[in-house]
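Incident log, support desk, overnight shift.

02:14 A customer reports that sequence design results differ from what the structure should imply. Their input is reproduced verbatim below. On-call engineer (initials T.W.) acknowledged and began investigating.
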């Protein structure tokens, strides 16, 4: 089990490569790199990240919302082929910086009317994506996302039946937004979870850092549930830039996460 910070927490404050260097300079041991633009989905950008990561381990990479991932499932062959070019380039970036996992939003549910997924079709297409990632030494970790295919408990189970090598990313913020209680996602993904994204909310629903004095989440319970399913991945702070004012607040949250995680995971 490792703890760290996603560079997404610094989105809008630093460019990606500078965010990684900032985390490294502040002795953050583990990071997820949140790639923000097409120019960053390249092997060349991976080399820049590698120069900037210092002693920080880059556990995973993440891409920006819907820039190309939904089109990996497209019925339009040209759009799909172009998206696979971007996928391969992104995986070359991940390999260059040493990331072993790709946090994946996946397909998007753009229409307001909920439609049933063809799980056989989506499963086959997801396996194609998994196989491309594997060529670069990277495992696909499907994330629960309230606007995506995985916006309800049950999707991951159907994908596991139809794929080989699928991993999971648990995001507590996205679980809140989906309306499904977070334990369901943890139980469904189980030991396949390799990455966990943590954030918190206040009583009024506004977001804040984990372990903030006015946050309402019991993170001992969250970590205990991860421990119960055999989690042995990276627990990362992933918040928005306006969820804290000064950088010491972010690092104080990480210190509290470290303390709580060591206590919970050493209990077994």
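02:41 Re-run completed on a clean worker. Output:
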């Amino acid at each position: 089990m490792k703890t760290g910070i996603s560079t997404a927490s610094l989105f809008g404050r630093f460019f990606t490569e500078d965010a990684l260097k900032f985390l490294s300079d502040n002795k953050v041991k583990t990071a997820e790199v949140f790639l923000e633009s097409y120019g960053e989905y390249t092997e060349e950008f991976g080399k820049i990240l590698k120069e900037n990561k210092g002693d920080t381990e880059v556990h995973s990479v993440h891409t920006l919302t819907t820039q190309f991932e939904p089109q990996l499932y497209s019925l339009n062959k040209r759009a799909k082929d172009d998206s696979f070019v971007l996928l391969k380039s992104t995986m070359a970036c991940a390999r260059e910086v040493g990331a072993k996992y790709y946090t994946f939003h996946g397909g998007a549910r753009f229409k307001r009317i909920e439609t049933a997924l063809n799980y056989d079709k989506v499963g086959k297409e997801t396996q194609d994506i998994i196989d491309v990632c594997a060529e670069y030494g990277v495992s696909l970790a499907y994330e629960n996302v309230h606007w995506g295919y995985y916006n309800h408990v049950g999707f991951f189970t159907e994908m596991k039946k139809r794929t080989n090598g699928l991993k999971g990313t648990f995001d507590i913020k996205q679980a809140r937004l989906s309306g499904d209680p977070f334990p369901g996602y943890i139980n469904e993904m189980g030991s396949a979870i390799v990455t966990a994204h943590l954030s918190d909310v206040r009583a009024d629903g506004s977001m804040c850092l984990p372990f903030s004095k006015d946050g309402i989440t019991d993170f001992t319970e969250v970590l205990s549930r991860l421990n119960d399913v055999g989690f042995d991945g990276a627990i990362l702070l992933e918040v928005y830039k306006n969820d804290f004012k000064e950088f010491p607040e972010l690092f104080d949250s990480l210190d509290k996460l470290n303390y709580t995680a060591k206590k919970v995971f050493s209990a077994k």
